[in-house]
Amino acid sequence: MVIRLPRVLGAVVAVGALALLAACGTAPPTAHRSAVAHEVHPGGSTSPVASAHGSTAPSPSPSPSPSSSATGRPVYVSLFEGDGQTYGVAMPIIAYFSVAPTSAAAFDRAVTVQVDGTPVQGAWYWEPSSRADQAMEAHYRLASYWPADSTVTMQLPVAGLSAGPGLVFADSLTLSMKIGDAQVVQINGAPGVDSMLVYRNGTVIRTFKISLGAAQTPTYLGTAVVMSKSNPQLMVSSPGEPYYRIEVPWSVRVTYDGEFLHDAYWNGQLGRANLSHGCTNMAPADAQWYYTWSQIGDPVTWTNTGTSQVLPVTDGWGDWNLTFGQYEQGGLLRPA
User: Fold this and answer.
1) How confident is the model over 259-288, as a mean pLDDT?
2) Same-domain pairing of 125 and 198
3) Which sign, positive or negative, has the C-alpha torsion 189, 193, 194, 196?
4) How many domains in the chain?
5) Which residues constitute the domain of residue 196?
6) Which run of H or E residues covers position 74?
7) Is residue 44 part of a domain?
8) DSSP code per residue over 223-268
9) Is 125 part of a structural domain of the chain?
10) pLDDT in tens, 136-190
11) How many CA atoms lie within 13 Å of 76's alpha carbon, on the beta-carbon side?
């Protein structure tokens, strides 16, 4: 985004036969954003922002349980992740529900997760769905990031189990996904420092000069997760602003409300001053390298951004901005 662009943008980007919609207003960082980027699939179904490599393929078809016991309105379950796909170490498992469950007890007792064949204990966090066609979603994470270069499997045998009074889960699912290298970014927004350190498996492999949000439009503190990539990302003015329409190269999305790491060829103050409307501005060659290297699910952490506002857990995949103790409380639904 250019120096005088709004932090939160409206955009429509064609991705082959799919359309990526990012219709946002001009809410300040502390406001709630209701507009969410979605990939629109042929046939009318939607899923959250897609990866540049198509890693939002749906999980295998659900299989109904032959021993259904509960009765009631069906709650259909689907997953963001796809079998065999590779994600970064901060990627939460994301499940979507067509009708909002009112009890997580049976779900929590039934679902099991393993890393390289060893059972692990994580937690589910329930929140309003980012998808217009879903009523609720639940995210699963461990107390710390997934081990690098591992295989995560999940058994979700919930078909026929109670989702609360008068509700019954309709689907049983399985998932087997890969976790790639530990690709971690640390950004220090202190004026005059403005640096981005890129780690792979604990070793710094790149250092970039960057520019974050200006004082009146600061970048969030905390940890976000890479959600999607667009090259270019079409950004247009919001109502009431001077008109602009610009295609921004090498854009990596990290929030629903419009924060990206991206090429900012117009910004001559990288490493010296924070001038953006919330995005992380990068030099063209640096942005291209990061765009190519990053994977969906990689964590990015910001410090010294000039605000006390931490990225909300529901703005993108802000799961890592809660302590694990807070996460274990379950959000909208208490655990079993």
Assistant:
1) 95
2) no
3) negative
4) 2
5) 182-231+247-321
6) strand 73-75
7) no
8) EEE--EEESSEEEEPPTTSPP-EEEESSEEE--SSS-EEEE-TT-T
9) yes
10) 999 999 999 999 999 999 999 999 999 999 999 999 999 999 999 999 999 999 9
11) 6
